[in-house]
Amino acid sequence: MQRLMLAVAVAWVLVATALTQTAAAATLCVGPGPGCLAQIQPAVDAAHDGDTIRIAPGTYAGGLVINVSVQIVGAGARSTTIKGGGPVILIGAPAPWSSKRPTVGISGVTITGGVNSSFPDLPVTQGGGVQITPSAGNQTGATVTIKDSVITGNQVYAQAQIPPGFCGPLACAFASGGGISSSGVLTLTNTQVTDNVASSPPGVATSASAGGIDAHPQGTLTLRQSAVTGNRVIAGAPNGREAHAGGIGSDGTLTIEDSVVSDNSVEMSGSQPNNAEPAALAGGVHVGDCCGLAGPATITRSIIRNNRVSIDNAGGDADAFGGGILAEAPLDLSDSVLDHNRVSASASSPGATAIPDGGGIEIDSPATIRSTVISFNTVVAAAPFGTALAFGGGIANAGQLTLAKSILVGNSVAATGAQGSAQGGGIWNGTFGGPPTTLTASDNVIILNALSAGPGLALQGGGLYTDFAVTLARTLLVGNKPDQCVGC
Asked: Rounded to whole angstroms, how far apart are CA atoms 296 and 301?
């Protein structure tokens, strides 16, 4: 009986505690109404875990710092705007990082006008619109859900460089996440991330990346019914040496469902010598863009369209890869469309080499592509006084690819130069110096892909070019120009 009475007492304590916590949750308001605060930050400062902050239509000051578990609810993305600051919204604690990991919901707002040139420090800047910091020990940060919102018109750039030694013989600086930079567990639902920029210049970054969203290895990124469009990564003279991930750069676990990644761009220009390793990468999505730490990526029922990678280097070689997707970590792509993406590389100095590849996708990892249309992607190389080497209009595979029930149609590779080649209008299967690649293809159609080149350049594999044995089962190669397969 005593045990029963004790159990009942404990149960009542738990119920009372839950009721107290529920009762304690409050709703604060921001706007012109009676009893409301005029701006959002004072409401955040007054809030406790579990509270809701409702924001009336209007434009409110950004530069917010949120380290409490709250729901931020606007009147709709067309009505409620949070503007300015660098970043506009910081979730978590500024360094030194806190051990607290809040749970934050944001809905019905537009986040815009952020210019971040100093956070977390001058040589490494992250997050023009939203920054989700790591927790103590550089561990996973806040859990954040953003829905029914727009993140647009934000910018990130660096103001100082790290001296030579940290990054090798040259100084370096980094700017990433024009729209969002996240070290937390981030989910976007019915949200647009559009027209954000990571750049150099302005600023002095040698590496600019993730114009839309930068997801770090501590966290996860999930997109559902969302769009990442029109974001840009720009790297140019005098400091810019690398530009990558026009739309999304992910080092953690990535899930994209029923979403669109389109019209993002990576642009590299100037006059960089070869020891600076100038390169432009991943117009749409970069999976595993740092340090070999990335988790797997899953892209389902989505469209990766009209993304661009371009490099124009007057000082040496020019490398450009992955117009739609660059996969340097495991990828599962299914029931999707990968179309009208483009990679171009121009190297105009004497003896220089232009090497672009992967108009639709470059694969450097284990990857599975199923029930997907890869169409009208383009690779273009120009080296008027040197070597033009262009590969893989649809797919450039240097990993371990399983391709099933997919269509590759209308992809193209073009090269012009003093010497060189164009290979693999539909698929290029080779290596960039690593281990042998594998390609297992079943129940596919590879049709109407094409190669073209200037006088004296080799054309090899209008449909498929391979340096290694491949497995082709019930895969149709037809109508490709100038041939169906080289190396099969």
From this structure: 17
- Are 272 and 243 in contact by the 8 Å Cβ rule? The answer is no
CB-based burial, 205-219: b 16+ in 10 Å, e otherwise: bbbbbbbbbbbbbbb
Domains of the chain: 51-486 (2.160.20)
H/E segment holding residue 320: strand 318-321
Residues in the chain: 488
Distance CA 96, CA 102 (A): 16
Cis, peptide link before residue 201, omega less than 30° from 0:
yes
SS3 173: coil
Nearest to 343 by CA among 400, 391, 403: 391
- pLDDT tens, 37-68? 999 999 999 999 999 999 999 999 999 999 99
Task: Report, as an integer, the average pLDDT of 206-230.
Answer: 97
Max distance between CA atoms of the chain, in angstroms, equals 96
Residue scoring higher pLDDT (12 or 207): 207
Q: Running DSSP on this structure, what letter comes out for residue 205?
A: -
Residues linked to residue 115 through DSSP beta bridges, in sequence order = 155
- Of the given ranges (10-24, 43-57, 151-165, 410-424), which has the lowest mean pLDDT? 10-24
Mean pLDDT throughout 181-185? 98
Confidence band for 98, pLDDT divided at 50, 70 and 90: confident
- Contact by Cβ (8 Å): 358, 323: yes
Inter-residue contact 361 to 328 (CB < 8 Å): no
- Residue 424, burial from CB neighbour count under 10 angstroms (0-12, 13-18, 19+): buried
Alpha helices for 25-65 (secondary structure H): 40-46
Burial class (CB in 10 A: 0-12, 13-18, 19+), 119: buried
Question: Do 92 and 132 meet the contact criterion of CB atoms below 8 Å apart?
Answer: yes
Nearest to 378 by CA among 429, 307, 439: 307
DSSP state of 209: E
Beta bridge partners of 427: 395, 464
* Residue 126, beta-bridge partner list: 176
Global pTM reads: 0.94
Question: Using CA atoms, how far apart are residues 437 and 397, in angstroms rounded to an integer?
Answer: 7
Q: Return the closest-CA partner of residue 354 out of 413, 290, 426.
A: 413
Burial class of 45 by CB neighbour count within 10 A (0 to 12, 13 to 18, 19+): exposed
Exposure b/e, 77-104, CB count within 10 A at least 16 = b: beebbbbbbbbbbbbbbeeebbeebbbb
Rounded Cα distance between 326 and 250, Å, is 11
Structure tokens at 67: 């380290």
**What are the pLDDT digits (tens) for 424-436?**
999 999 999 888 8
Q: Which two tokens stand for residue 183?
A: 């070290």
